[in-house]
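Minutes, methods subgroup
Present: GH (chair), OT, SY

1. OT presented the first of two proteins processed in the latest run. Sequence and structure tokens recorded below as shown on screen.
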Amino acid sequence: MSTNEERREAAKRKLEERLEREHQAARKRKIVIGSVSGVVVVAIVAVATYFIVDKIQTDRFNAAHVTCDYTKVPSRFDQINTEVPEQITDPAQRKLYQEQIDKLLAGKGKQKTSPEPDATQAKDGTSTLTVDTTQGVIPIELNRSGAPCNTGAVISLADNKYYDGTTCHRMTTAELKVLQCGDPTGTGAGGPGWTSPDEPPTNLKSAGDANPMTGQQPVIYPRGTVAIANSGQAQQGESNSGGAAQFFVMIQDSTLPASYAVVGHVEPAGMEIVDKVFKGGINPGLTTNQTTGAIEPATSDGTPKLPVTINSATVS
């Protein structure tokens, strides 16, 4: 049998062994906890870095872009009065009025639509719009800086072939000299099914006093300027003037209200084509006399005698 001394020595060894095992286990737990803590710290730093970088990139994107409020609109052809008003009794006037109705109804069947542009458009940047017409190629430099929403709309329309096969349906030859294009119906009443927000120019030279009724300042649109035609509602204080696809080219410096978004300018080679068309003259259209209300020939407003059909309009 073991002596008491031997039993005490055995118990002491067991205690020492147990304490050593517990000490080793405690050391392992510290190492694991320390490693996990390091991973957690690294993960937190990585997540924080991701959100910081993402915010910087988002802020930069937002600073370089603008949100455009393109608005769906019904066809103007749905509002056409298809009969000569009874109050027009003069035979000659009834005939002229009927001619206008017939022209609009003929154009109604040529309507085209196009998808709305992306609501987010870049504020800056230039592109070349190559307008290949039956009279020659008209290169246009588009510049987003003055009207990013309207410029983006023109690019979208060209990309969707909206302008292909359309005519430049209007030319004016009086004090205001412009060539107007972009309406598939050839009537001035067509549109893609939506309008662009107003972006009045802010960098054109002022000309004369502001309109006392609207407060609008007339400005000079230089020769070669490409601007977006509209319904003129902005001149009556409306917030959306209805501009979208139709654009006009300034044949010479002209004074207009600052309500037409400028999207670019025609290159010199293109202005040679525009000048050729202008020299060809116009086929006078019809207009309404603002004083008498009578319909009469428009001696300085009509269609170009040299027909201008857009074969294609491409952006590069």
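2. SY then presented the second protein from the same run.
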Amino acid sequence: MLLVSGLLVWQAFVHKRTNALSMPPSPPSNHWLWGHVLPKEYPFLQIDKWIAEYGPVITLRTGFTKHVQIGRQQALIDIMERQGTVLADRPHAISTSELFAQGASIGFVPAGERIKSMRRALHTYLAPRAAEHYEPLITVHARAFILDLLDNPYDFQEHAKTFSSSLVLQVAYGKDTLTRASDPSVQQVQDQNERLRLVMSPGAYLVDTIPMLKYLPWYARRLKDGFKKDKELFESHLDDIETKMNNGDPNPSFARHLLEHEEQYQLSRIDMAFLAGALFSAGSDTTATGICGILLSLALHQEEQCMVSEEMDRIVGTERVPVFGDEDSLPILRAFIAETIRWRPIAPLALAHKTTADVYWDKYCILAGTTVQGSIWASSRDPDFYSDPEKFDIKRWLTTRAFREDMKFLAFGYGRRACPGQHLANRSLLINTMLVVWSFHLSMSPIKDCDDRLYLSGFPHQRAYDLRFKSRMGSDTLRDAIRRPAILT
């Protein structure tokens, strides 16, 4: 205990000598050795409580390491966005960088030319204009989602996963056949995402405090074995694309783009395999969770659902199916989506960043080399931006006649490490919400109690809610309308 106390005192002494400004305030730790221990279930709720009590930016300690949490919108903009050049790095934690990612996953690649090449390649395929190019493809899969709901509404979660997996597999690998949620490759990437959520939780693995544990063969076997399976899956997909290219297959894909521009991007084969795999794994999980969150929100908020349905009837009517071109004419629907993402964010905690130089904010200094993490959940509860933040209120996103373009919620990460797939995800959420509202009225089972936070823990294996889907125009009429060729403008 004397050794631990001495190390902590030495850290404070070095900090004071380094800079006259102090680190952001720190709540009292709840363990003398491990520091600020977070609960395994909904850890972001505890961070939110500390943010509310101690301020927008706080310092926590995990073992001997201090890290900073940011939980208010303006502080995130001031630090993560405006000073993003010195926050583009990732911290090196043994659990994430060495055991989970082993240097291959873009989410944990450090700052430098390699990450710049990776993001440049992703931007080519996923920038806003590129996402618009995919609208016909998204529409095809979204209409299939509606038909699945019509045939079997009980398995709405599986249908959402089928939509997202089919879409991202076509974008990533050119696969033009339906991919069900039960597909082994989809199950593998869902396991990868569960491992990611686990290692992202501060203090989840003792190896980050006691590094020698990584040499024990039995330690963190799930992370080590999981990486081997991920590597086999992603390399097999890349090999398959190369074989198809050699056989004259014309289907475009992100993996094909990487192989055709290998010299331009200067990425290794394992880098290309995991980069295309990242598009698959991240896109399939987050988009499915986002769609299910919209469905839950519609069922829970009947008054707001009726407002969106009334707008849909007034603008689109029943004679045609809504399309992307209707977006600007549906401000209430857009407000519903925005408020759902704020009310129940897809990812409550963002991936951590690392400062490469001292960062100054207010009267504080965040030292170079510090791990900094944005709490998406806490920022969604920012009372300076969102009055009565626990209330689901779509009117906060509306003026008298239009959607408020000046409102912004940072739901997909920050600065130079923001999620490059956010534009594809947003287009997917938009058209699916349009089609669901046009097709169905949703409600909850009156029997079961509802914990509306279940999707905050990621995409569940089992059905989380008992939702009811009532066709708004009769099943046969709806089926015929959805099956008619889409008019995309």
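Chair's summary of item 2: The chain has one domain: 2-483.
Next meeting: continue with the remaining queue.
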